[in-house]
Amino acid sequence: MHIRRMGGAEVTVVSSESPYFFSRTALMYVFMGHMTLRHTEPYAREMWDEWGITRVQDEAVSLDIHRREVLLGSGSRLSYDNLILATGSRPRRLDVTGENSDGVHTLYFRQDLEQIEATIGRNMKHAVIIGGGLLGAELAEMLRSRGLFVSMIVREKHYWGNVLPPEESKIIETRLSRYGVRLFLEESVISFLEDEGGHVSMVNTSSGLQLPCEMACVAIGVIPETALAAGTDIQVGTGFLVNSHFETTSKGIYAIGDCAERLDPAPGRPATESMWYTGRRMGECVARTICGQRISCDDGVWFNSARFFDLEYSAYGKVSAGGEHSLFWSDDCHERCLRIQRGEGDVVSGIHALGIRLRQEVCERWIGSRMCVNRVVEELQQARFDAEFSEHVFPSVIQSFRHQLAR
Questions:
Q1: What kind and span of H or E run contains 47?
Q2: 76-111 burial, b for 16+ CB within 10 Å, e for fewer?
Q3: First vs last Cα of the chain: how many Å apart?
Q4: Integer Cα distance of 222 and 90 in angstroms
Q5: Strand duo 189-194 + 77-79: pairing
Q6: Looking at the whole model, is its pTM more than 0.85?
Q7: Could you read off the pLDDT of 25-51 as tens digits, one per residue?
Q8: Structural domains in the chain plus CATH codes
């Protein structure tokens, strides 16, 4: 869209998954009946033709970089002057016995949703989810909405332990339990058992647990999809290696989104990011470069948001998973909390909020300007989003933070 907006070249988009761009994170709401697949498309279908963007529903199977062509699964070829690889990622596998059994799923592609729907139509009661990140929580809510008993296996000592401090994890664990999710911490899957028909019937764990189920969902992260680099001079690490302009090691070929691995990530940022808003920024950056306005991408302040059933979560900047060097407040019921990370020089480096909605632009301004934590506490009221609710909560939060600063 940016290329076309700048009056640039003809654009052809190849996708084997769907002929129209859709919001992948909305698939759970389709499953729960809140939306249809058509509702997940953010643009009117007429827009693609109006903008002069050609859509090809086919699979790109290989690249001929010397002839500057993309070979498609149908056998046809597409020529290009500039090629943008936005192949995304694929679900990470457990690589254990029985993982390919009928009834063992991931949730990433639209086709995954269709397979889950086909499976859940059978007479089933129990489901097991392997992995406790954001996708694991989404799957739990989806399956509970259909009345299934859900067990979740998490290898860390506390929920999403590589991201969240223990206090935040405990709040989420309590919320999951309230909605009927059985959580098994410090466990890992060693195998899946099948019934006589080849359908999953049991999950075996490292501690000897045997969890009966008619469905299992694996949600242990993703891996950049880099298969198209085979037979080319495009260098690959975890993803396609790119510079600050998202140029790969092959002239005229770029990579953006989940599949791109940056050689020079900003301080404190990962080399690969599976975030929609960073992907959008990468797209604009590459478009400008191709159209003669060569620029580097402004990463901005890290941001993420999600829901754990009815519990809202948002994160800004970087917060230590150990929770050290931070100010922390939780209500008396331990249902909501707020954490401010104290970075080097006692400036704010990150903010976590659970059950409290904050103004994104305010939090990003504080972190981007490296504001002193003391001043952030005094300006905390500026971040109030839910005015009626936070009017009663924020005085307690500020008082607690002031007390912690004084110690």
A1: helix 46-50
A2: eebebebbbbbbbbbbeebeeebbebebbbbbbbee
A3: 53
A4: 5
A5: unpaired
A6: yes
A7: 999 999 999 999 999 999 999 999 999
A8: 2-16+58-89+223-290 (3.50.50.60), 93-220 (3.50.50.60), 312-406 (3.30.390)
